[in-house]
Input
Amino acid sequence: NLDPGRLINLLEAYTGRTVVSSTTLIVFDEIQACGRVLTSLKYFRENAPQYHIIAAGSTLGVSVQNRSSSFPVGNVEMLTLHPLDFEEFLEALGEDLLIAAIREGYNTNRPLHESLHSKALDLYRSYLVVGGMPAAISAYLRERKVMDSSLIQQAILSAYTADMTKYATASETSKIIACYDSIPAQLAKENRKFQYKVVRKGGSASLFGASIDWLAASSLVEKCERIEGGFMPPSAYRDLSAFKLYMSDVGLLANKSGIPASMMLSEHAGFTFLGAMAENYIAQTLRAKGYPLYYWESGGQAEVDFILQKGEILIPIEVKAGEHVKSRSLSVYRERYKSELSIRLSTRQFGFQNGQKSLPLYAAFCL
Output
């Protein structure tokens, strides 16, 4: 019996509190664990709309995709909560004036004062270690020590593994975990396209494809698909067999990869994996802004890290972890598809020249 009146009576009896429709917010956490509660949302919407209800689920996307319960289509407003982006990280630190300065630099293409630029880069490096998970940021805020977030991140990664075990079959679980664990190795390659053979020798899409779908549906990874041409709309030119996988949070990637925080925080850091970290950071930022992720490749000769659709135009984006920004890929793309604007992200200052907008990595939230 999923009658809302009966369910409200049960909630009141269990909690010892009176539910007042005008002032009480009812929260069903991890709702995917109980399909009937998920189904009850339909009856609340139709028969008792006066109640205010929020339902949350860490693997709700998987439950909906698998139709393991009767999802109340049309009766629920769906929202995806992403990790905090760098702007929100700065807000948590009380750096509102720095945010304003970054936005002004983005809008005017004028460099920041060198002291502000240096400060923003330092905080960007801290963000690569801490990431955007709320609990990790909360731990960091207590004493501004990046290592304080490490134990929180390890607990989150363990919880993810537990969810894989809980909400997938035994045979699926081992493959899902293997795919997830392979992400640092996938991103460490010069060609960061996801390769099933990296997961397991002899691996294939038929063996691991469903595992990738599970990870994407649960929002544990961000999938960046290759497009075969710089044409509108990019979704029509996807190569479904070629994609990159990024972790949903760059701090979790840093933790899972085992990179010492001291290496990440150094302004002179130049280790190879830093490029993968910067790419993951940009992917995470773009997804938080609501953009789908695409990249472009031309026969292994040129590759553009991200292709951003803004209204009626496609903008090629190249990501560089440091100040070395020489690359021919943007030029190849722009010449082939007559692109009037490109964006290069690096540790360099704001600037604009010959149709190329130069952005510091910390300004990605302005896109």
Summary: The longest strand covers residues 238-247. Residues 126-366 form one domain. The radius of gyration is 22 Å.
